[in-house]
């Protein structure tokens, strides 16, 4: 750097001012540094994460009383920070199988040195068993939500879960439905009333299965509400066809159909089968041209359904030739 001392132009005064301010400041700064002997610690060496979950590094040795700030980042976000005097720090409290970046920053007498870092995955402890716990089911309308958990440090280690669904009422119960799910839950849709399930879940990680957890789950009973399929009447009879809720919707055993009227009462026993055919109800011996009120309900293992109420008028007697009507 050279300064012109022979300046004669108009900016000579400005230059003189720069000199008089600049030189003493520079000198003062140099003097401060020299006087306090600031020591900037060198970066640490050999930052590594041991399989035991301990972070280690080599000391920064150029300054006395060096301590270390350990900073842990996850996906570029600072997660954790601590200052230690030792040359290691146990990070086994972090989630296993998750990738973190570990920064080690030397600090000597409040002077911060440059960082060094390592990006590493917290290893799953040797021989760890990712057991399933808290396996439970919850009914949501016609569905069952099956949920479970693994230990709080393990969620990132699981590749998938094996879910076996045994339908105990099913003829093919020996062959369960096997699913591989990635979330710790599954929505089993449209379950039948009165059905019984068995759920088995295990975690799969690195080709190994954790301990299986099992539960049995019963869908509570519900009444079987009949719906009217068909109604036919003539002068002396009313025939009705009733559709019952099908077996895949409601497995509770149906025992009878009850017809309750002001003029007649009848119970029709039903031998329930998985096919669950429609039920024909024939009401005979009626008067022509009359209104009949009656209700129909189904009885099953959950009890009596709400009655289906109806009013049917029998036909008037017609004496058309060729039609033989018996009264
Ligand atoms: C893990 O479980 C699944 C499902 O039961 C099975 O097919 C697989 O063979 C098991 N793997 C091991 C290594 O046992
Ligand atoms: C009702 O069913 C009975 C017996 O099956 C039959 O004799 C009668 O004709 C039927 N009535 C009507 C209106 O279909
Ligand atoms: C049928 O049963 C109902 C209720 O049990 C009763 O109120 C009604 O009087 C009965 N009708 C006849 C015709 O027996």
UniProtKB/TrEMBL annotation:
SUPFAM superfamilies: Fibronectin type III. Keywords: Signal. It comes from the Eukaryota. InterPro entries: FN3_dom, FN3_sf, Ig-like_fold. Residues 1-35 form the signal peptide. This is Fibronectin type III domain protein. The lineage of its organism: Eukaryota, Metazoa, Ecdysozoa, Arthropoda, Hexapoda.
């Amino acid at each position: 750097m050279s300064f012109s001392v022979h300046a004669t132009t108009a900016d000579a005064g400005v230059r003189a001012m720069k000199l008089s301010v600049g030189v003493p400041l520079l000198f003062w700064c140099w003097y401060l540094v020299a006087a306090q002997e600031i020591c900037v610690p060198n970066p640490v060496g050999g930052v590594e994460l041991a399989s035991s979950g301990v972070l280690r590094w080599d000391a920064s040795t150029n300054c006395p009383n060096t301590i270390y700030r350990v900073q842990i980042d996850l996906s570029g976000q600072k997660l954790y920070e601590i200052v230690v005097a030792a040359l290691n720090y146990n990070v086994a409290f972090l989630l296993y199988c998750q990738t973190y970046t570990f920064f080690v920053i030397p600090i000597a007498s409040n002077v911060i040195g440059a960082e060094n870092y390592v990006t590493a995955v917290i290893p799953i402890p040797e021989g760890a068993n990712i057991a399933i716990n808290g396996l439970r089911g919850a009914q949501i309308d016609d569905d069952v939500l099956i949920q479970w958990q693994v230990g709080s440090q393990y969620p990132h280690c699981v590749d998938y879960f094996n879910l076996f669904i045994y339908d105990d009422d099913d003829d093919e119960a020996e062959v369960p439905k096997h699913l591989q799910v990635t979330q710790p839950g599954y929505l089993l849709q449209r379950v039948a009333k009165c059905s019984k399930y068995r759920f088995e879940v295990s975690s799969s990680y690195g080709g190994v299965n954790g301990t299986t957890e099992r539960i049995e789950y019963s869908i509570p009973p519900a009444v079987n509400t009949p719906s009217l399929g068909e109604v036919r009447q003539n002068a002396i009879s009313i025939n009705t066809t009733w559709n019952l809720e099908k077996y895949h919707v409601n497995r509770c055993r149906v025992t009878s159909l009850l017809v309750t009227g002001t003029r007649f009462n009848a119970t029709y026993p039903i031998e329930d089968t998985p096919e669950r055919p429609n039920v024909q109800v024939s009401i005979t011996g009626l008067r022509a041209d009359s209104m009949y009120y009656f209700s129909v309900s189904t009885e099953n293992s959950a009890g009596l359904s709400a009655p289906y109420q109806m009013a049917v008028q029998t036909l008037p007697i017609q004496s058309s030739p060729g039609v033989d009507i018996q009264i």
